[in-house]
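Per your request, structure below.
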């Protein structure tokens, strides 16, 4: 027995150093394409999963290309979750090449998509469907923790419903939303607003002087108080338009990335967006 005990201790240390512990082996290893999906996965998975995000914090997911190392990691995952709709086009391409052992989840499955706008999660209704799709996948792959996943979904959906009602009661119907980045189509559709964007969703190039002048004229004609910008892209363009139009600027988060690296969740960001909309549209 004296000889066996040191061997067992050494073996235990080796397993722990390799990350192969009983606790970790019981958890799903989940990879996500970018920040919004990572937050949704964390919300449903909680302590029952280990999660990793491929697109680094502060990085724009549009046009991102994974490395060979990223793809190798995905091949060893239990579950891979991506948004779809074009914002993580690389993930859509890779999904079909992953081993059968990886459960691939397109979180937007079953949602009617706008081909010009991949920011599907900015609608509460869509976000709830995405969370449900993630829950179903986790429950299938890890049935023993199915109730835990369901409980988290139920509790979070209730909180989303409360915030959605705040949006509905804010009186945004019929308002024009002037933005530098056309990323808020789903948000506008859900709450009866009209999005007027200086640039398309991709924002690959700077707007022309003619586009800038046109936006300034529209803002003046409407009597709007401000132009909204995506903090991930910066406020340079918004400031230029605002100066000409004589209005203010306000941030409106797309939740594509953890820009400030503060790990703020979906509800926190959507609450911040509500506050900005109330200031800028009333």
């Amino acid at each position: 027995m004296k000889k066996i005990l040191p061997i067992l201790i050494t073996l235990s240390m080796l397993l722990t150093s390799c990350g192969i512990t009983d606790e970790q082996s019981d958890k799903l290893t989940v990879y996500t394409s970018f920040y919004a999906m990572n937050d949704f996965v964390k919300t449903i998975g909680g302590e029952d999963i280990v999660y990793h995000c491929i697109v680094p914090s502060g990085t724009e997911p549009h046009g991102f290309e994974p490395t060979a190392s990223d793809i190798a990691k995905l091949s060893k995952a239990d579950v891979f979750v991506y948004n779809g709709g074009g914002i993580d086009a690389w993930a859509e391409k890779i999904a079909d090449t992953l081993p059968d052992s990886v459960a691939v989840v397109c979180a937007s499955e079953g949602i009617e998509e706008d081909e010009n706008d991949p920011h599907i999660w900015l609608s509460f209704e869509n976000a709830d469907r995405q969370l449900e799709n993630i829950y179903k996948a986790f429950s299938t792959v890890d049935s023993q923790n199915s109730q835990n996943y369901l409980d988290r979904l139920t509790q979070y959906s209730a909180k989303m419903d409360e915030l959605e009602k705040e949006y509905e009661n804010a009186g945004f119907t019929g308002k024009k939303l002037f933005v530098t980045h056309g990323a808020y189509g789903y948000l506008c559709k859900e709450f009866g607003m009209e999005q007027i964007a200086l640039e398309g969703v991709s924002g690959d190039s700077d707007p022309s002087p003619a586009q800038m002048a046109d936006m300034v004229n529209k803002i003046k004609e409407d009597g709007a108080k401000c132009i909204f910008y995506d903090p991930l892209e910066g406020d340079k363009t918004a400031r230029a338009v605002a100066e000409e139009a004589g209005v203010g600027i306000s941030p409106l988060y797309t939740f594509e990335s953890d820009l400030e690296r503060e790990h703020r969740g979906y509800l926190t960001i959507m609450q911040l967006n509500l506050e900005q909309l109330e200031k800028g549209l009333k």
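The longest helix spans residues 146-168.

Regards,
D.
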